[in-house]
Amino acid sequence: MAKLIYSAIASLDGYVEDEDGKFDWAEQDEEVHAFINDLERPVRTYLYGRRLYETMVGWETDPSLAEHSPVMRDFAAIWQAAEKIVYSRTLEAVSTTRTRIEREFHPDAVRQEKQAAGSDLIVGGAGLAAEAFRAGLVDELHLFLTPVLVGGGKHALPEGVNLKLELLDERRFRSGTVFLRYRSASSGDAGD
Ligand SMILES: NC(=O)c1ccc[n+]([C@@H]2O[C@H](COP(=O)([O-])OP(=O)(O)OC[C@H]3O[C@@H](n4cnc5c(N)ncnc54)[C@H](OP(=O)(O)O)[C@@H]3O)[C@@H](O)[C@H]2O)c1
């Protein structure tokens, strides 16, 4: 069965956005971007909360993003080729191809997606991912910890979830960002 991966770039103190709603401090250099491209290349489906989707649409609608460098062009191609499922009760229409809206997050439907998928799926942002954690659906965590403390904001990881993790991989980058890859040791027990 395909895995559901929660992938997030967070501050070292564990936030995906700070108290002002900013996350410019999460911007990564080319080395990290190239690594992310290779991680996400085999992924065919993104499950997005509406807020993260809105920050990602530029990878298809704003060609200037891809023009920054070959690494960015590579990511734009990876992103555009993947299926996107956007969870939202408010979004009226999507502005990218291969994208559909779901009005509710139904764990059984996601379980079926995992069973039917030929390759792994990624879930983000933190709000939607928290629901996937609570439903015991997250098989792996890919965390990019950025060397900055922001003091508060939106937690990268869900509150109220107990889950044992097994470290599968780690990598340090020249920028000081650290990648940690964990497997859920007890998929299905989250939130108990
Ligand atoms: N650290 C970084 O590198 C980075 C990168 C990009 C973005 N960010 C920031 O990180 C934030 C992450 O997003 P987030 O955690 O705030 O939100 P999110 O999970 O991306 O989106 C939350 C929205 O998803 C929809 N949703 C969630 N659960 C749902 C459900 N059960 N059924 C239907 N719809 C559901 C709702 O949309 P509706 O309100 O439309 O119903 C909800 O407001 C972004 O807002 C952005 O500011 C950080």
What is the fold's blueprint, element by element?
Elements: E1 4-11, E2 15-17, H1 30-40, E3 45-49, H2 50-56, H3 58-61, H4 63-66, H5 70-81, E4 83-87, E5 99-102, H6 107-116, E6 121-124, H7 126-134, E7 140-146, E8 154-155, E9 165-172, E10 178-184
Short précis:
30% of the residues lie in helices and 28% in strands. The chain has helices at residues 30-40, 50-56, 58-61, 63-66, 70-81, 107-116, 126-134; strands at 4-11, 15-17, 45-49, 83-87, 99-102, 121-124, 140-146, 154-155, 165-172, 178-184.
3D structure, described in words:
The chain is an alpha/beta fold. The protein contains 7 helices and 10 strands. α1 packs parallel to α5. The two termini are 23 Å apart. It binds NADP nicotinamide-adenine-dinucleotide phosphate (NAP).
